[in-house]
Amino acid sequence: MSVTKAATPRRAPRGEKSERTQASLLAAAREVFAERGFERSTTSEIAQRAGVSEATLFTYFESKRRLCIDVVGRWYDEISIELEEQVPAIAGFEARLRFVIQRHLTHLMGDGIGLCALVLGEGRMVDAEFSGLIAELKRRYTSPFMAALSEARELGEVRGDVPLRLMRDMVYGSMEHVLWDYVTTGTKPSIASTASQLSAMLMAAFALEAAPARAARRFQSDVLAAVRRLERDAGPAEDAA
C-alpha cells in the first residue's frame, strides 16, 4: 500500500469502478494543478474533467487540500519507484548522480510549471499533517541516492570529511534553484546539459583529490612560502646596502 493511500483518512468507495473513478479524479487534479496551481484550481473543474459531479469528488476526497496531498504523493511514488529500481543497477557514483539529477529535473518539469511549483511549494506548508507526509515521502525518495552516496564513500569515490546529509542537501538544493528559476521565468533549460553541468560541479566538490594533485599543490605551497621567507629575510639587507 502506498504512503498516499495510507494517509487518506476518508474511506472511499471500493470496487473496480470506484478505483477507476478515483484514478480519473487524481489524473484530472494533476492536470488542473499543473495548469493553474493549487490556489486557482477548483474542485468543480477537476470533477468536470474527470466526468463526475463535484459531490462525487467529495465522496473520495474530503477537501481540495487532501486531493492535493494525494496528487503530490502519487508524484513522489512514481519517481521513488523508478529510482529504487534503476539507481542500484547503474555503475559508478558519478553516473548515478547524473541519473538522479536528470530524472528529478525531468519529472518536475515534465508536467509544466504549475505542478513543479506545487511539488516545490507545498512541501513548505506549515500544516503539521501535510508537512509530516511530505517529509516521509522525501525520505523514501532520497533513500536510493543516499545509499549510493554511502556506498561511494565506502569505496573511496567521494570524500569522507563532509556529512552525507550535507552532500545530499547540496545536490537537491542546487536542483531546487534551477527549478524555481524555471517556475519564475517560465523558461525551461536543457535538462541534459543542466544535469551534466550540475553533476560535474558537484563531483568536483565531492570527489577525493588524487594523491599526485595533492602532492603537487603541497609542493607549490611550500615553494611559495619559501620564496616569501627569502624575500622577507633579504629585504633589510638590501635596504642597508
And the CATH topology of the largest domain? Tetracycline Repressor, domain 2
Rg from alpha-carbon coordinates = 26 Å
Care to count the β-strands? 0
Tally of alpha and pi helices: 11
**Any idea what the CATH architecture of the largest domain is?**
Orthogonal Bundle
The CATH class of the largest domain is identified as: Mainly Alpha
What is the CA–CA distance across the termini? 88 Å
Give a structural overview.
The protein is mainly α. It has two domains: 65-208, Orthogonal Bundle (Tetracycline Repressor, domain 2); 213-241. It has helices at residues 3-7, 16-40, 43-50, 54-60, 64-86, 93-110, 113-122, 128-154, 164-185, 191-206, 211-240. The radius of gyration is 26 Å and the shape is elongated.
What is this entry, summarized?
The protein is an all-alpha fold. The chain is 79% helix and 0% strand.
Question: Which helices and strands occur, and which strands form pairs?
Answer:
Blueprint (H helix, E strand, L loop, with lengths): L2 H5 L8 H25 L2 H8 L3 H7 L3 H23 L6 H18 L2 H10 L5 H27 L9 H22 L5 H16 L4 H30 L1
Helix pairs in contact: 2-3, 2-5, 2-7, 5-8, 6-8, 6-9, 6-10, 7-9, 9-10
Which key terms come to mind for this protein?
241 residues; mainly alpha; 2 domains; Tetracycline Repressor, domain 2; disordered N terminus
